[in-house]
Design a protein that fits this description.
The structure is a single chain. The chain has two helices and no strands. With 59 residues, the chain is mainly α. The radius of gyration is 22 Å and the shape is elongated. The protein starts with a helix and ends in a 5-residue tail after the last helix.
């Protein structure tokens, strides 16, 4: 039974990792992509507007 207790944690972690990768791959593209892109574009626009208002320059 020692081998079962030794193998259980890596097997469980591998299963969760595979589930995470599958979830990430499935969530790429599709109807959520436009929403995610819009959020990123809005954040970048706010950062750019703040940078220009402060008078700093990009390096």
């Amino acid at each position: 039974m020692d081998y079962v207790s030794a193998l259980l944690p890596p097997v469980v972690m591998a299963a969760f990792f595979i589930g995470l990768v599958v979830t990430i791959v499935k969530s790429q593209g599709g109807p959520n992509k436009a929403k995610e892109d819009a959020v990123v574009d809005a954040a970048l626009a706010r950062a750019e507007a703040t940078r220009q208002a402060d008078g700093t320059t990009a390096s």
